[in-house]
Amino acid sequence: MFSEFLLEMITSAAVSAVLTGLLLWLTKSWVSERLKNAIKNEYDEKLETHKSELKARTDADIETHKAKLKSQSDTEVERLKSNLSVAAAERHVKFSRLHEERASVIAETYSLLKEVYLAIQDYVKIFEPAGDKTRDERRDIASQAHKALRSYYPKKLIFLPRETANKLQEIDMELVKIFNEFAFTVDFQQGAGDARKWIDLFERMAGEMKEALGELENEFRRLLGDDS
Fold first, then answer.
1. Using CA atoms, how far apart are residues 140 and 17, in angstroms rounded to an integer?
2. Considering all CA atoms of the chain, what is the largest pairwise distance in Å, rounded to the nearest integer?
3. Is pTM, for the whole model, over 0.85?
4. Which of 131, 178, 196, 207 has the most CB atoms lying inside 10 A of its own CB?
5. Alpha-carbon dihedral angle through residues 193, 199, 202, 203, given to the nearest 10 degrees
6. What is the DSSP string of 67-117?
7. How far is CA 157 from CA 160, 171, 210, in A?
8. Residue range 2-12, pLDDT digits in tens
9. 37-92 pLDDT tens trace
10. Residue 171's closest CA among 128, 111, 211, 130?
């Protein structure tokens, strides 16, 4: 009986020890799991807080940087506008001066060219009324007029477009040709000289040379801004 009682006690003690150990293990596991969950929750909260703070600072920094960039951009744009305005004003002044100089050159060139044309036209005219200037006088006037033209416009061709300058030079050479032909085939000959050549030169002055001069006049007007 005693041995049975002792065995029962030993068995009960073993069971209690096992149960106690199991309870301790379960308690320890539960506490450990709670601690891990608590730590994880705290970490997650801190992480979210840190992320929110970091995002807020980043957003604030971005907005500050954007505002700074916009301010710098606006400043640069205004500075560029100012520089462009100054450059445009300078170009306008230079263009105005160039236009004024070109207008002056065109006016003087045309005036001198017209003088040559009228003088040579007077020189080669067929009808020579009594009391008119002599042919020698008219020839000298035409020669002096051409010298004045030649002493001026070749140095001013840079102010004219190439095509206009070429037209001017062609007219100049043609007038010289007519002047020389008249002098050597009519004026310096005995009597009336070559009457047919005389008529031909007079008609060229009244026809093709007048037309060429008119075309040059229109070209000059366009250069001065008259598109009519």
1. 150
2. 187
3. no
4. 178
5. -160
6. HHHHHHHHHHHHHHHHHHHHHHHHHHHHHHHHHHHHHHHHHHHHHHHHHHH
7. 5, 14, 22
8. 566 656 666 76
9. 777 777 777 777 777 777 878 777 778 777 777 877 677 767 766 555 555 445 54
10. 211
